[in-house]
Design brief:
Blueprint: H1 2-8, H2 17-28, E1 35-39, H3 46-58, H4 72-78, E2 85-88, H5 99-110, E3 119-123, H6 131-142, E4 148-154, H7 162-166, E5 169-172, H8 178-186, H9 193-202, H10 207-215, H11 218-233, H12 239-245, H13 251-271, H14 283-292, H15 295-313, H16 320-334
Helix pairs in contact: 3-4, 5-6, 8-9, 9-10, 12-16, 13-14, 13-15, 15-16
Bound molecules: zinc ion.
Length: 337
């Protein structure tokens, strides 16, 4: 992955070609905007895109569609030390970008570029700007210095100030086609096609999330969990013991998986068709539960799991062990009638 990482700062991902070509053509025509809003769901590589495009603008000898990767500016950019690039991010332990950080960047924007070219500011994520910081940045967006390009990267542009939003050229990124991602993923991950598709499905179609899941060996973790919940289903393992074993799992992710398994059981009950399942490797268990549980019990448990998941994603403080025991007891009761 090391080679790929270095490459990330030079090239866009395969699914970002149209956005890349748009910016390159604007650049060649001398029509770059001073501010862009890169928006879309997480896991699409928007931040990498912004870094790659910054590298392209800073490069002394750019090719038609990419930085040269060899000049001094490219080297400075790849080590994250280019004096004409500022990345505005949350500081450690903070969830917001503060006004002092923005002021520093405004000072930077008002200076002449040290290397005589562009000055670039990346704000990531833009929704982390608190209200004062956003208002301070607004000034910079209204009166940008010459050859200054600001790229705001956002997953939740709806929560941003409308005044900021309206001063940026919108650059939307959408979830790419599965085939595009699978081709890219198959070059990086040593898994067969069925597993690649499963990774992509677990990642809700987000390419970088599926790559992270592959690197985290999430499929083998998930297989173990399916085996263990299967033990509970068959009455061979106690909910309390399995809850104990699941304590080190990420709760939100775990509940997301259980929610997906239940949805598959419901699908199995309605259609009997394994091909429609998102988790085909648990078809046996799904068929068994579907034959025993009532549709209303399945829907009730699914609603409960989803509500617990929403709580787990918030700041709610609760007893994880008790929640897991409760979950597994409810799961067991599906088939007990
Ligand atoms: Zn270069």
């Amino acid at each position: 992955m090391a080679g790929n990482h270095a490459g990330l700062l030079m090239y866009p991902y395969p699914w970002q070609q149209s956005q890349w070509e748009l910016l390159c053509s604007q650049h060649q025509a001398g029509k770059l905007s001073h501010a862009y809003l890169l928006k879309g769901v997480a896991g699409l590589g928007k931040y990498s895109f912004s870094r790659a495009f910054a590298g392209f603008l800073l490069c002394q000898h750019p090719e038609k569609l990419s930085a040269c990767g060899k000049c001094k500016d490219c080297q400075l950019n790849q080590t994250g030390n280019h004096p004409d690039l500022k990345v505005l991010e949350t500081e450690e332990k903070s969830k917001v970008i503060k006004i002092d950080q923005v002021r520093e960047v405004i000072n930077f924007a008002n200076k002449t570029a040290q290397q005589g070219g562009y000055r670039i500011i990346i704000v990531h994520p833009a929704e982390a700007l608190n209200i004062n910081a956003a208002n301070a940045l607004l000034k910079c967006l209204e009166e940008p210095g010459e050859k200054t390009v600001i790229m705001l990267v956002s997953e939740q542009q709806n929560t941003m100030l409308a005044t900021i939003n309206s001063r940026c050229q919108q650059l939307p990124f959408s979830v790419p086609k599965a085939e595009t991602i699978l081709e890219w993923l198959s070059g990086l991950v040593d898994e067969d096609e069925q597993n690649l598709r499963l990774l992509l499905s677990l990642a809700e179609g987000q390419p970088l999330t599926s790559l992270k899941f592959a690197n985290d060996k999430i499929l083998s973790v998930r297989s173990r969990l399916i085996e263990e919940i299967g033990g509970v289903t068959k009455g061979q393992a106690s909910p309390v013991d399995i809850a104990q074993r699941w304590m080190d799992q990420d709760l939100s992710q775990l509940l997301g998986w259980v929610s997906g398994w239940l949805a598959d059981v419901i699908r199995m009950q309605q259609t009997g068709d394994v091909a429609l399942m998102k988790n085909p490797d648990m078809a046996g268990m799904a068929r068994y539960i579907a034959s025993k549980a009532s549709p209303s019990a399945l829907h009730k448990l699914l609603d409960w799991v989803n509500s617990q998941r929403a709580l787990a994603q918030g700041a709610a403080n609760f007893n994880k062990q008790l929640l897991l025991e409760d979950l597994l007891i409810r799961w067991l009761h599906l088939t007990l009638g």
